[in-house]
Write a structure and sequence with these properties.
Helices cover 48% and strands 14% of the residues. By secondary structure, it is α/β, with parallel strands linked by helices. Strand 3 and strand 4 form a beta hairpin.
Length: 311
């Protein structure tokens, strides 16, 4: 018998049952556990995010690679297994998957890798913090996140707080437009900028309900337009950071990163840690809160998508 991609998947019984019944499931990434926050904050946040998805009427499916197996749904012990060693766990994007699987290693999945595995499992809604994109100084580095290409490939909607504010937001939007990926604002006309509620850039479309998002997604895929959608949700106002302050902090962190010669997939973890230190931990709290908010909206979208399919 020929080997199929699904032969590499381990889907928990809860997630498998929900998928078979056409019920709402929300994918969650694991890089935020291993590289996004320090222990034990990372494990606490991952647990709270799963609870938020359940409260919204959907089943959470945190995704990772453990002993070379593509795991769709993690136990509390498995989440802790990724959280305790933190950045020692390999950060996996599309290019890394064959090697981590073949070598039977553990891996924390980025937005791109999570989308790939979610699509394999038949999950179409994914909640995360923010997506990657075109890095500042791209004219010298050509550093563009694989997240953008995956958004053009995989039929998974990514509910996030916009494009990470450490990136070149304008160029990232242009790249997504070229690849045909809609960027929609959830109850907003402007794109959120992760820690702050607005980047000043307009979104392609505004949507005000989860049903609107689900209808557009289903129509997109029904007419054969493969690829995902960015559903950008502003961070709750009480947890947002001041635009001018966070922009200044990011500029300082980027300058420090350049001085140390840090490049590639090490840039985001370095910048997030530097920003957390410079804001006295306020950015870390903001990060936790925006992920929880995104999980809430993602659960609503997944529920509406499942209702549409049942109709």
């Amino acid at each position: 018998m020929p080997v199929k991609p699904s032969d590499y998947l381990d889907i928990t019984p809860e997630v498998a049952t929900a998928l078979a019944a056409g019920e709402a499931v929300v994918a969650l990434e694991s890089t935020i556990i291993s590289h996004g926050m320090p222990y034990p904050r990372n494990v606490e946040t991952a647990t709270a995010v799963e609870a938020m998805v359940r409260d919204g009427g959907a089943v959470p499916a945190t995704i990772a690679i453990l002993d070379g197996r593509l795991k769709v749904g993690l136990s509390p012990d498995e989440i802790r297994h990724l959280g305790e060693p933190g950045s020692d766990v390999v950060k996996c994007s599309r290019r890394d998957l064959p090697f981590i699987i073949a070598r039977q290693q553990d891996g924390a999945t980025t937005v791109a890798a999570t989308m790939i595995i979610a699509a394999m499992a038949g999950i179409h809604v994914f909640a995360t913090g923010g997506i990657g994109g075109v890095h500042r100084g791209v004219e010298d580095t050509l550093d563009i996140s694989a997240d953008l290409e995956e958004l053009a490939r995989s039929n998974v909607a990514v509910v996030c707080a916009g494009i990470k504010s450490i990136l070149d937001i304008g160029r990232t939007l242009e790249y997504l437009e070229t690849r045909g990926v809609p960027v929609v604002g959830y109850e907003t006309n402007t794109l959120p900028a992760f820690y702050s509620r607005s980047s000043g850039f307009a979104v392609d479309y505004r949507v005000d309900t989860a049903a609107d998002v689900a209808a557009a997604l289903q129509t997109k895929w029904d007419i054969g337009l493969d690829g995902g959608m960015v559903v950008a949700v502003p961070i709750p106002e009480q947890h947002a950071l001041d635009n001018d302050e966070i922009d200044g902090v990011i500029d300082q962190a980027i300058s420090e990163m350049q001085q140390q010669g840090i490049t590639g997939k090490d840039t985001t973890p370095f910048l997030l840690a530097s920003i957390a230190e410079r804001t006295g931990g306020r950015s870390l709290e903001a990060n936790s809160q925006l992920v929880l908010n995104n999980a809430r909206v993602a659960a609503e979208v997944a529920v509406e998508l499942s209702r549409g399919k049942s109709r």
